[in-house]
Amino acid sequence: MGGVASVPTDPSRSLKVIGAGYSRTGTLSMAMALETLLDGPVMHGGSQLLGREDAYVKLWTDIFAARHDKSRLMPLLKQATQGFVAITDAPGNCFIAELLELYPDAEVFCVRRNRENWWKSWQSVSNAAGAGFLNVFLAVVPGKRWYPKLVTQFSEQQEEKWGPMTEERMDEHNAYVKQVTPPHKFHMMQLSEGWGPLCKVLDVKVPETPFPRANDAEAVEGLASQIFVEAGSRWAVILAGVSVVGYGIWRSWGGR
Known about the structure:
The chain has a single domain, classed as P-loop containing nucleotide triphosphate hydrolases (Rossmann fold), CATH 3.40.50. It is 56% helix and 7% strand. The protein has 11 helices and 5 strands; from the N terminus they run βαβαααβαβααααβαα. The longest helix has 39 residues, at 216-254. The protein is globular, with a radius of gyration of 21 Å. The model is unreliable at 237-242 (pLDDT under 50). It comes from Pochonia chlamydosporia 170. It holds the Pfam family Sulfotransfer_4. GO terms for molecular function: hydrolase activity.
């Protein structure tokens, strides 16, 4: 993993853990830890949305669009999570109750973080994610072209549930997760606790390796840099083609 999208190869595997921590609470570290403990692919939202093929990313836009129609929503959500052993980050953490209905045996982990630090981190990422030019710039990149729409859909879904985004959102989200999760399935932790809480609940041996300490922001920035290079290259080819055609037309008309 480490910011690279995991791809399931065995559709018979199912979610054992729902990482319900809000975005910017160490969701990548949690995903890497779960991938080690459960020995399988983990659906980390940021890595998936920026690193998977076009059809898979579009699937999540369909899921958001179907959020008010359960008969449509549930099959789509099942399709998007099939073969994964765990899920963390948005957009998965926007559908905790629905995931619990699909995977009633899954353990649910919420993550606490200092509210002030979380809010600063959230604002820095959300400001960049909402840049208006991305709609046009990413339009030529398969997979990534859906990202601006997903950002809009996420914001709409969040506002429907809680209103405008504030520094209280992480706590509001955690309270919601606790409300919809059976008490014996709900677990609150801090990443500073390391392997302990996860291993105890999952009844697995504590790994000899250190608990992952991934920097979500750095991982996303790394993916973003690759995306901008890809988008820039595609636009360069497009503009070069337009220039050649334009020059040909100009020469054609100029020769008359």
